[in-house]
Design goal:
The structure is a homodimer of 563-residue chains. With 563 residues, the first copy, chain A, is of the alpha/beta class. Chain A has 19 helices and 21 strands. In chain A, the strands form 6 sheets. Chain A has a 7-stranded mixed β-sheet with strand order 14-17-18-12-10-19-20, with helices on both faces. A 5-stranded parallel β-sheet of chain A has the order 7-6-5-8-9, sandwiched between helices. The longest helix of chain A is centred in the N-terminal third of the chain and has 25 residues. The two termini of chain A are 23 Å apart. Chains A and B meet through helix 1, strand 3, strand 4, helix 18 and strand 20 of A and helix 1, strand 3, strand 4, helix 18 and strand 20 of B. Strand 20 of chain A pairs parallel with strand 21 of chain B, so a sheet runs across the interface.
């Protein structure tokens, strides 16, 4: 099939952005085509802040009819962590009808080729980008993120990660040429000659299992990696975070249809409460790829049972920060205080265990005892969150009652160095807003081990007294090996300690941030430059985004003949 | 660690070959640095044919002491399919001692970096290449291949596949730069700046489980892909094909040691008869990668149980050739006759099911009935193998008694169109040499199905009467989907039929050779250009060689800090 005119136009339109993305994943310098300041929106067809809010308000209480085959009912029930019922209803699908329908457009999508597929993906992202102000509210009111974070992480940063996946997918598919002439000399006889064609072919339907806290940021890499490599994508959102992904599916279907492809290449699988369709869908023979972000238990279940599929999981981990010494004590405390507070610690990248030598540390402000470091950190958090309005804009709301229960239980685990504080939200009084809890633990006490070596998802950190920095490195190794880690942070002025920590991270395969004291935080990664997770420890079997994340989503079929 | 002087020298020596390999995997044109004519050897330090034979003879009855840690005994027992007892003994390893010892050199090997690792791998291959004449005899007397095939497939072609894997591994590891400076503008404030380091890190010990028929050809891709990406490699040869891989391990240990690395990065795990150590080793926590070629049953077992590892398998498949029409009837028959005969059909790529319309086909020699096609093919095989000496040089010997038993049983499955003939080998009277058997089956008869949809490994093909070419395409689809296929061949002059076959192969993910009538055969693939297997049907979960084959053998650890 020749590309439809609409597809050709898209290729011309998006080629420069694709080329820049391809260049940036090679240099890993800073770049993003998606502005992260709200004021940048409202021109060139993008929604302004007011328009975005109005568009979100207009969605409330409506039915999002995606015109999908096999729709056998309607699903609703999202309640914002800020208190409002969204009242949006979504199609419920009969997979026996929907899955075959999703396969119907595969051949045309395969024939379109890698470049057209990339251009269509970039058009989807461009239209989502234009509605960033609207998406921000959908992410805020499903994840509980504060508005600015929902705007940035759920908007431009998520779009960046989607674009990054498209770039990797394109690069991977075009490593092999479409055709080759092969001529093998045979001495005095005629050479052997073959004409070869190489076609990237999809694996089959790809299932995206979304998460509650970062529906777009964690969802877009898998979605776009699979779509760009020719696979239809079935999006199964978290039941409490349907709206951002339902809109994403709606935009994707619109763009696919306009470009001359089957809209059913992307579809939504919303579910009734307690239906558990992820488990049913994940093992169906049509599903050949699964992307998942969520609990270790279900991630392990998927890896064990969805054997017919390539399974990419991001599960739980225990993130560590080693505090050995610093030449910027205030900067360190401020940086850590922010990391612990951002989105109430409800990030897979938030530090949990802060390892501090029991004999104290050296700093530019003189030696500090273990107790001083802990109380100074507590004070830094207090100071950061002193004003309720500002605190709310950083903390957001607790995403669900489980986090609240875990937070309350954690206060019983040891001496509380910083109590979690209830913070009121004037605009949304129903929001449950809590500041971080810091609990003191002693690594030498056996009872501490259960707490240390277990993810306590939410605004909970442990200030862990360790015998020495060397002991801290050993505990770090054990933690990463047994529990996995999405991030490791460390503060040290000692080249020897730094080398020990770096070596531990290289050997245990964990991403390390060293001596961050400014405006970059251990829990944030930037697309095109930072890898999110390593794919080499138990926290995740894949990294966002690298060659391995895309290379097995398609295969190359060769057809060879004599010329 | 700075690279040792020896390693730097190797980098300079091998960089041109690496660059050419990198270029060729992009263009997929013909290229090989390893001559495939025996006469090309004997100069520039390589063994001449006579020297190679003498070196092989000198190995017989000796002990190959690799000086491995944990050697707790000696293993022997290889008997050549040509009748001689090799009498070579190999170290038996205690994995509790050997595996930790193999990990000891990992950090230095990681620090060497991708280029030095590639150069060391290329030096290993170069030394093996210089001993190609010797390796040829080891492959012949373990696999039963005839000498010329053992020479070419076991020598230059295997070395090509190893080099190809090294090139992919190098390309993959260098997609991310070693360092990056990241500067993010912050409006009027100072930009955020980070200095980032990216290090490819190995997964852990890689286990190569070798096969009987192509110990080097099927073994080198995984061995070199893992070693080049920083992983130690434990080589577990098939008990009847130890010698070629033991010599490979010996060379690798020699080169690693000379280059300043730990020789234990490559080690041998030979086993006592019936010990079944592959099953024990594959699930050990130290083993993080498994490469396997062999039966579907054990391949499936590995995929199910070796969950702590990345598992790459090449298993059984059922290869089909569709015969719809041809404009070179004689060429087609000759080409097929050769494909069926080569190494007595003991290749994972040999055609098994020849689908022929029951109403016959059109050819440049006039219309041919089903019976005529089958008898003309039988005659072509007879003519190719008329002379016993020439036949033996093509057929080699049956690799084991199972093949012979299967061949004998297959003659009962239907009408025999071409009986398998016993052929005597003057030089090796004990060799069991058999010409191909062709049995007629009717796809319309239910009892044919069990035979058709099951791999019958060895010199057995089925001439299958089908209702039409369209029915043949449907049977092809079903065969690939249910049984997998390493290769598909087809003969047709009809653009419509060709398109149907191509579409079937693209959708079912099988590699297709169209209208081969000359000196290229469906069962042969060339490194740097052809993919061996697709990795997308049940015959194999990986292709040799592509990005996916190497991308997940290592991970990238990022260390970032403020500048």
């Amino acid at each position: 099939m020749a590309a439809a005119p609409a597809a050709t136009t898209l290729t011309e339109k998006h080629r420069p952005v694709l080329d820049q993305a391809l260049e940036t994943i090679r240099t890993r310098a800073y770049w993003s085509p998606h502005p992260e300041h709200p004021k940048a929106y409202g021109e060139n067809g993008s929604l302004s802040p007011a328009e975005g809010k109005a568009a979100f308000d207009a969605l409330l209480g409506t039915r999002i009819d995606l015109d999908q085959p096999g729709t056998d009912g309607w699903v609703e029930g999202e309640r914002s962590p800020y208190g409002l019922d969204l009242g949006v209803s979504y199609p419920h699908a009969d997979p026996d009808v929907l899955l075959p329908a999703m396969r119907a457009g595969m051949a045309d999508w395969r024939r379109a080729g890698a470049e057209v597929r990339a251009a269509v993906c970039l058009e989807i992202l461009a239209r989502i980008s234009a509605r960033t102000q609207e998406f921000a509210h959908t992410v805020m009111h499903t994840s509980g993120q504060a508005f600015m974070m929902a705007f940035q992480a759920g908007g431009p940063h998520a779009q960046d990660r989607g674009l990054e996946a498209v770039a990797y997918a394109y690069a991977e598919q075009t490593r092999t040429p479409l055709t080759a002439e092969w001529t093998k000399p045979q001495g005095r006889r005629d050479p052997l000659e073959l004409r070869k064609e190489f076609t990237p072919v999809p694996r089959g339907v790809s299932l995206l299992i979304g998460c509650n806290t970062f529906p777009t940021w964690n969802g877009y890499p898998g979605l776009f990696a699979s779509l760009a490599t020719g696979n239809p994508v079935l999006v199964k959102p978290h039941p409490r975070a349907v709206l951002p992904l339902a809109l994403t599916v709606q935009v994707a279907r619109e763009v696919l249809g306009e470009a001359g492809f089957d809209a059913n290449l992307v579809a939504l699988a919303a579910e009734h409460p307690g239906e558990g369709i992820a488990k049913q869908l994940a093992v169906r023979p049509e599903i050949r790829i699964v992307d998942y972000t969520g609990s270790t238990a279900f991630g392990d279940w998927l890896e064990t049972h969805a054997r017919q599929a390539q399974v990419y999981t991001e599960k739980a981990g225990v993130n560590t920060v080693l505090i050995d010494s610093t030449d910027d004590y205030r900067g360190m405390l401020a940086n850590l205080a922010f990391s612990l507070s951002l989105y109430s610690g409800q990030m897979c990248t938030t530090p949990q265990n802060l390892l501090i030598p029991r004999d104290g540390i050296t700093t530019d402000a003189g030696p500090k005892s273990y107790d001083e470091v802990v109380s100074d950190l507590a004070a830094a958090v207090d100071s950061l969150l002193g004003d309720d309005a500002k605190a709310g804009a950083l903390l957001g709301a607790l995403v669900n009652d489980d986090v609240k229960a875990r937070l309350e239980a954690a206060a019983e685990l040891g001496e509380v160095a910083l109590a979690s504080r209830e913070i009121s939200n004037e605009e949304f009084p129903a929001a449950v807003v809590r500041s971080p809890l810091i609990v003191k633990l002693d690594a030498a006490k056996p009872e501490a081990e259960a707490a240390l070596l277990h993810e306590c998802f939410g605004p909970v950190s442990f200030a862990v007294a360790v015998d020495s920095s060397a002991a801290a490195v050993e505990l770090l190794r054990r933690t990463v090996r047994e529990q996995g880690a999405m991030t490791v942070g460390a503060y040290t002025t000692s080249p020897e300690v730094s080398e020990q920590i770096e070596e531990a991270c290289l050997e245990e395969c964990a991403q390390l941030s060293l001596n961050l004291t400014g405006g970059v935080y251990v829990n944030q990664t930037a697309a095109f430059s930072d890898f999110h997770g390593s794919g080499g420890n138990p926290a995740a079997n894949a990294a966002l985004c690298d060659g391995a994340f895309v290379a097995n989503r398609f295969r190359v079929v060769e057809i060879r003949r004599e010329p």
